[in-house]
Amino acid sequence: MTHNFPARFILLLLLLSAIVATSCRKKDKIDTDPSAMLGFSTDTVFFDTVFTSIGSVTQRLTVYNNNDGKVSISQVMLAGGESSNYRMNIDGMPVLQAQEVEIPGHDSIFIFIRVTVDPNNENTPFVVSDSIIFLTNGNQQDVKLVAWGQNARFIKDGLIEGNQVWDSLKPYVVYGYARVDTSASLTILPGTKIYFHWGSHFNVSHEATLTVIGSREHPVRFQGDRLDPFYRDLPGQWGGIYLERGSKDHAINYAIIRNGTFGLSLDSIGTGTVPGLLLDNTIIQNTTSDGIYSYSSSIVSTNCVIGNNGGSALDAEKGGSFDFRQLTIANYWSASVRLAPSLYLSNYTYDDVGNKIPWPLEKAFFGNAIIYGIDEEEVFLDILDGTPFEYTFDHVLLKTGLDVTQAPHYLSCTANEDPLFVDPSLFDFRIDTLSPAIGKGIPMGVTLDLGGNPRGATPALGAYEFIPGK
Fold it and tell me: Could you give the 3-state DSSP secondary structure of residue 221?
């Protein structure tokens, strides 16, 4: 059977074919016009503090061709060449330079960049800079690369022997673990920074002692070693500080412990008369598990903040002895489902087959404190009958369904009133102008707050006094 197509139809097909062919040729043709410039997602790729010999996170630069036609970048290169601290990856290939990199019209490519800072003799941060140069149609464009570099003392599975002192001249970076050896001692001076690589931890052995001597202006910091914005508030970057069984006489003053799996873990240290840990003016926050885990241990504490914990802020198991004054517990954890109350106290442990073994809670005193969070119940008193469980909440604001009017365990306490922290999302647990914690305390012998402000005859609850205008 023969089909006779109209001539008009055949002509239309020919015209369409010509248009398509012309369009394809235009799309495939490289635009050599000097005005065909590249666009960039940023004019400067910035890396936050990078420790010497440790590679940075990877940053991404997007290179745009906003022109109709294809452009060919005749050369992409690091200005510093082989001596550059930076390395780049283009289209999956690690290169120092690349030639004839083509970008179709109205399309883009990605360049991934990392930086490693070489050691030098300086103690203070220094700037490491370079640039990526693009040569296109006779034009030269560049994107700056800037990183803050920092020298450090590196510890890999390190044993701290004898009586050592760490100062603030250079930060410490721990890989694996740092352990204070049996019967040794470590004193950490004001302003010292200890950074932990992913999964690393800090241990204090049997008969060893840790003393942290920070100051309000120069606290001692324990945190992960990634300081880029993405990691700044990422919990679980390192293990935590283990005060192991048989270690003794620990004191921590003006420290910031953050972004770990937990903050402090205490195993059977101290007694009611000889505390295992004196903990003052310290912030423990943003942990995937407990802020403080105590197993049959003793803590005396003033002016501390424990906030945003995936477990309890204070988990005290197998009894012990505790005296916390001017404490702020503020648990607004939201990174996962939290299954533990902010405060957990128990007076027993378990044997190997799951039977409860009594262990007295000799003392649990909380004075002028705030114990608050986003769960309906933030206090769990896990009491084994017939075993001492001595606890007192003296002028405390609690988030709880417990009856806080019952003396002698509750003295002038308040339940379920929002303490009105300044900004929990930014870990700012100072109290705001209308906070019900203002003026609700009594003198507890802690005359200055965590910020160094004086407390009067009717101090605020928690670690921070309310100061108008601050």
Answer: strand
**Among candidates 96, 76, 93, which has minimal Cα distance to 141?**
76
Q: How far apart are the first and last CA of the chain?
A: 94
In whole angstroms, give the CA distance from residue 250 to residue 248. 6
Give the residue ranges of DSSP H helices in 29-79: none
Cis peptide before 34 (omega within 30 of 0): no
Which one-letter amino acid corresponds to residue 414?
T
Residue 389: name the closest of 409, 410, 365, 363 by CA: 363
**Each residue's pLDDT tens digit in the chain (470 positions)?**
445 555 555 555 556 555 544 444 555 688 999 999 999 999 999 887 888 777 778 899 999 999 999 999 999 999 999 989 899 999 888 999 999 999 999 999 999 999 988 777 677 677 788 999 999 999 999 999 988 888 888 898 999 999 999 999 999 999 899 999 999 999 999 999 999 988 999 999 999 999 999 999 999 999 998 887 778 899 999 999 999 999 999 999 999 999 999 999 999 999 878 999 999 999 999 999 999 999 999 999 999 999 999 999 999 999 999 999 999 999 999 999 999 999 999 999 999 999 999 999 999 999 999 999 999 999 999 999 999 999 999 999 999 999 999 999 999 999 999 999 999 999 999 999 999 999 999 999 999 999 999 999 999 999 999 988 76
